[in-house]
Amino acid sequence: MQNVIPRRKKTIRDIDVRGKRVLVRADFNVPLNDDGSIADDTRIRASLPTIRYLCERDARVILCSHLDRPQGVVVERLRLTLVANRLSMLLGRPVLALQDCIGPEVESAVAGMSGGDVLLLENLRFHPEERANDPAFAEQLASLAEIYVNDAFGASHRVHASIVGVSEHLPAVAGLLLAKELDAFTRILKDPDRPFAAVIGGAKVSDKLGVLENIVPRVDLLLIGGGMAATFFASRGYGTGASTVENDRLDDVRGISAKAAELGVRLLLPGDVVVAERLDAGARARVVPATAIPDDLVIADIGPGTASEFGQALAGCRTVVWNGPMGVFEVPEFAEGTRRVAATLANLHGTTVIGGGSTADAVTRFGLADEMTHVSTGGGAALTMLAGKPLPGVEALEEAEEP
Ligand code: ADP
Ligand code: MG
Questions:
Q1: 193 CB contacts (<8 Å, ≥6 apart)?
Q2: Which of 254, 298, 337, 371 would be 346's cystine partner, CB 3.0–4.6 Å?
Q3: Which pathway features in its UniProt record (predicted)?
Q4: How far is the CA of 29 from the centre of ligand 2 (A)?
Q5: Do domains 12-179 and 192-386 have the same CATH topology?
């Protein structure tokens, strides 16, 4: 297989962190409500094992993260103070939030730390040098610590200063969350229990071509849903009504279908779909066969027959990876297909891995996240892994010795 499966990287368990100053790149890029409060603290909770591990060993824990997209300037509502407060509550110890991530005040705060102390640097993206992977900025960040820990799976597909640049200056290892994410994806890509199915959906097939190409040779069963089903239908000459079809991707999609047929992979497209005039709440929805989509309507979800068929096909699987919702699940009228696939996976006796920002969001909204083997905290990073592409932030870490 031409694509890479990452080699095992050193983690904080493989090195001596006791009493050390440790720079931890976390992913505190949490969704915010309109009033600026934290809408979902999953990513903060996910960082706790690494922070606790370090505190228990009297390390001095210097946390850093980006939040949203401040475009290289200070944006008051994107300060990390609220994140520090939430983290402090969850951790049960003080977390000091600093006003910047580099500079003399940061240096003196770090110099004053005792073993077990935790502080949080200010939003890295207040500095344009973070996204530019600026070497001087990376060096300044690195100068704060003796060890670098990447625990930001969700940002590890980015070549940014706090993800890649710092690792050139310090011993660089994975945190426990990053290691868990890598283990989950590596296992399904390398050695899945079979039968192994992939459920791929979402808005556009162009976002998922890399994933489809990498996954088809690995799976026994491939289920397609979401808006991208329209491009699959069009590639087979069905009418797609007013749905968006990516005409420049028809050949790619035919290639995926041909590859599946050649390898004996069972490829299922929706047999029925929910269609509507618009993709908004309140739009009148009805179910039609996929071969009879009215001209003026768009595909909004998989139909109930498809949800049952997918459910039956998945029930016999021992590993399922799911990326991309089956419909416009944000609108209650079009959420049923996604909900039923989520329920099927929740009941599956096997390994279930959820990758993709919207897919994880859907599973969480349905209250089923705890029923899955692994719900990834990374959207773009999960897609990168499923596409078999290296994550720059992981490549930069030290390799573990072979056992
Ligand atoms: P993920 O973030 O899990 O990788 P994507 O970003 O690929 O998923 O897709 C998520 C989006 O796809 C959702 O916002 C959802 O509304 C949209 N979507 C799903 N089905 C359709 C459809 N039939 N038409 C338009 N958009 C859709
Ligand atoms: Mg997405």
A1: 318, 319, 350, 351
A2: 371
A3: Carbohydrate degradation; glycolysis; pyruvate from D-glyceraldehyde 3-phosphate: step 2/5
A4: 15
A5: yes
pLDDT digits (tens, 9 = 90+) for 151-193: 999 999 999 999 999 999 999 999 999 999 999 999 999 999 9
Question: Does 28 appear as a known binding residue?
Answer: yes
Respond yes or no: is residue 316 known to be catalytic: no
The CA 323 to ligand 1 mean position distance, Å, reads 10
User: 12-179, what's its fold?
Assistant: Rossmann fold (3.40.50)
**Which stretches of 116-235 are assigned E, i.e. beta strand?**
118-120, 147-150, 172-174, 196-200, 221-224
Please spell the DSSP secondary structure of 272-323, one letter per residue.
EEEEESSSSTT--EEEEETT---TT-EEEEE-HHHHHHHHHHHHT-SEEEEE
Per-residue pLDDT at 303: 98
Residues with CB under 6 A from ligand 1: 201-203, 207, 226-227, 279, 299-300, 323-325, 327-328, 330, 356-359, 379
| 365: its two tokens | 């909204």
pTM, two decimals, is 0.95
Q: For the domain 192-386, what is the CATH code?
A: 3.40.50.1260
Residue 370 per-residue DSSP state: G
Domain limits of the chain?
12-179, 192-386
pLDDT given at position 5: 67
Contacts of 337 (CB under 8 A, 6+ apart): 225, 274, 301, 302, 303, 306, 307, 326, 327, 329
Q: Which atom of ligand 1 is nearest the CA belonging to 325?
A: 19
Q: What is the pLDDT of residue 55?
A: 98
Residues of the chain with pLDDT under 50: 1-2
Q: What is the DSSP letter of 271?
A: S
Tokens of 44: 């903060």
Residue 184: per-residue pLDDT? 96
Work out the widest C-alpha separation in the chain, in whole angstroms. 70
